[in-house]
């Protein structure tokens, strides 16, 4: 019960977190493949998420395809960071929560999504973060999709096999 209270307080603090640095609308800079692990760990600490994030592999797309790096968060989430075709800047994240009926891991998924928002758009208005968190907490029906767009980011929530959370730079098309 104590861990659920910590998670709720962490999500609340994310909603009222003060604005920090500006994000870019054509990439997820300052996030890069080399900075992703330490930046995510720093953001995860701020929302009291203590699960290990480990790199799985990277597939370099060269000039004709996207480069995608995969990570694993605990035993409940897959994370992918991607570029545009032939480019090096990270423009999108996809996080897939596969917690199932495990409520503790489901709560950790919410914290991971919160950490990703904090990492990729630390200056986001608290009311916008609140809107996104509200959608996450309300849940989605299978097959439904919800999008929240800000000036710098596009957040897409969808449920199929697991709950999918995408973050794209606002000026980048989905892949």
Compile the SSE list and pairings:
Layout: H1 2-15, H2 36-46, E1 53-59, E2 68-73, E3 77-83, E4 90-97, H3 103-120, H4 126-138, E5 145-149, E6 153-160, E7 162-169
Antiparallel strand pairs: 1-2, 2-3, 3-4, 4-7, 5-6, 6-7
Helix pairs in contact: 1-3, 1-4, 2-3
Describe the structure.
This protein has a seven-stranded antiparallel β-sheet with strand order 1-2-3-4-7-6-5, with helices on one face. With 175 residues, it is α+β, with helices and mostly antiparallel strands. 32% of the residues lie in helices and 28% in strands. Strand 3 and strand 4 form a beta hairpin. It contains four helices and seven strands.
* Widest sheet: strand ordering: 1-2-3-4-7-6-5
The biggest beta sheet is recorded as:
7 strands, antiparallel
Order of helices and strands: HHEEEEHHEEE
Alpha carbon gap, first and last residue:
40 Å
TL;DR?
With 175 residues, this protein is an alpha+beta fold. It has helices spanning 2-15, 36-46, 103-120, 126-138; strands at 53-59, 68-73, 77-83, 90-97, 145-149, 153-160, 162-169.
């Amino acid at each position: 019960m104590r861990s659920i209270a910590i998670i709720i307080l962490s999500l609340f603090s994310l909603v009222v977190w003060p604005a920090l640095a500006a994000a870019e609308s054509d990439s997820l800079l300052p996030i890069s493949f080399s900075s992703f692990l330490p930046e995510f760990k720093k953001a995860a600490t701020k929302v009291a998420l203590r699960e290990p994030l480990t790199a799985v592999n990277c597939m370099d797309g060269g000039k004709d395809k996207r480069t995608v790096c995969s990570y694993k968060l605990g035993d409940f989430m897959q994370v992918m960071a991607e570029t545009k075709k032939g480019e090096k800047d990270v423009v999108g994240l996809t996080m897939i929560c596969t917690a199932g009926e495990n409520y503790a891991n489901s709560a950790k998924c919410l914290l991971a999504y919160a950490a990703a928002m904090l990492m990729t758009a630390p200056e986001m208005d608290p009311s916008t973060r609140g809107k996104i968190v509200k959608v996450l907490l309300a849940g989605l029906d299978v097959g439904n999709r919800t999008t929240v767009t800000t000036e710098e980011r596009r957040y897409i929530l969808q449920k199929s096999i697991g709950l999918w959370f995408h973050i794209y730079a606002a000026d980048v098309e989905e892949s």
